[in-house]
Amino acid sequence: MADPKGFLTTGREVARTRPVGERVKDWNEVYVPGSLLPIISKQAGRCMDCGIPFCHNGCPLGNLIPEWNDYAYREDWQAASERLHATNNFPEFTGRLCPAPCESACVLGINQPAVTIKNVEVTIVDKAWDSGDVTPQPPERLSGKTVAVIGSGPAGLAAAQQLTRAGHTVAVYERADRIGGLLRYGIPEFKMEKRHINRRIEQMRAEGTKFRTEVEIGRDVDAAKLRGRYDAVVIAAGATTSRDLPVPGRDLAGIHFAMEYLPLANKVQEGDLTVSPITAEGKHVVVIGGGDTGADCVGTAHRQGAASVTQLEIMPRPGEERNPGQPWPTFPMLYKVTSAHEEGGERVYSVSTTHFEGDEDGNVQWLHLVEVEFSGGKLEQKPGTERRIPAQLVTLAMGFTGTDRENGLVEQFGLELDERGNIARDGEYATNVPGVFVAGDAGRGQSLIVWAIAEGRSAARGVDRYLAGTSTLPAPVRPTDRALTV
């Protein structure tokens, strides 16, 4: 055990963020560089080294959290990195982007603030990179088998790295111009600087993984022909079909899906564009959707110089403490203030958009909304609560409904879908087409980055067994596993 009295003598302390007035003027990560290192060993010492560590259940990767907390407390960073990477290919991604279901399941969190697991994780991996402890791990021998991975998000990258290290020759196909999927173009720079992706890609290249950008399977390459070229295929194309809002005025100019808006801002940071074609500068911005993607739109609008930012959510505002219906160790629905919300703007709950109103040139100018409430299990509008708010840029961040069906991938492979519109798979992540597997959101539906990495690792085991007859690769989750929620 790290510090037997740590949870009694040390309070929870998290990473410090840069002042709002400073950080909204740039696109760098919001945290003060180096602020964690002086405090993180004591924070790791708060871990109770539980007999039954429920943080393992909260995390689908099965991260060995008490073990690397112990090493971090002792400042044995090399050993901590080894334990961390034993279950997670990309802890620098999860340490920055995951909402930390492990912390919700922390035993200390029953009656005290939970251990800052996420902060410990990102400190360990950043130290490992700085110390040169993260190195390529090429296979000792090649199997002679080839695998195509479609999609370079966290699921695809995890599957590719695992299969490459198992000795298979792996090529990753990505329809965008750079590798990373939503990590690259869906996550703003201020949440994760893209240098973290770039150095992982270089590690994977050194291990032997091949990357093919600007190739969309289904459009540029026929899926059936791709299957003929490779011994196995992993589909990790994500759930990229955005949920729309079919109300009057939806066709007005200035109303965009979040995944139309966010990638352009990232392309500016990559140097591809000088100014985003969709910008919030000087505009009244409305973000529809109260989740993480909506918060990303809020933070992006702040940095682009929006006149005002309003975020709408159809559900009631969550409480700041667990309610009895969401007991420990489940992942609770709590009122969350992200770094983007700290920077300003208004959040409005229990409202629904009725229609949009535009000017004579067809540009959106107003959003009309009404307050709603749940009555008898149904959502009903409250009479007399209609109003309108200024809206010159509207982003729709209401989630995703499934994998892309328009590019022909599903039909060309001849894939079966489940009742929710996701690509169906069996317990080995195999689809109905021999040799074709699916991992991540394309099979699970919209989920968290930690689930995507876990599925990529698990699907890699299924592929390895298909190709070699047996496998020693880990499979942390089954396709039927679900998050610890109620």
From TrEMBL:
Pfam families: Fer4_20, Pyr_redox_2. It comes from the Bacteria. Residues 39-131 form the Dihydroprymidine dehydrogenase domain. Pathway: Amino-acid biosynthesis. InterPro entries: DPD_II (IPR028261), FAD/NAD-bd_sf (IPR036188), FAD/NAD-binding_dom (IPR023753), Glut_synth_ssu1 (IPR006005), Glutamate_Synthase (IPR051394), Helical_ferredxn (IPR009051). Keywords: Amino-acid biosynthesis, Glutamate biosynthesis, Oxidoreductase. Residues 146-456 form the FAD/NAD(P)-binding domain. NCBIfam families: GOGAT_sm_gam. This is Glutamate synthase subunit beta.
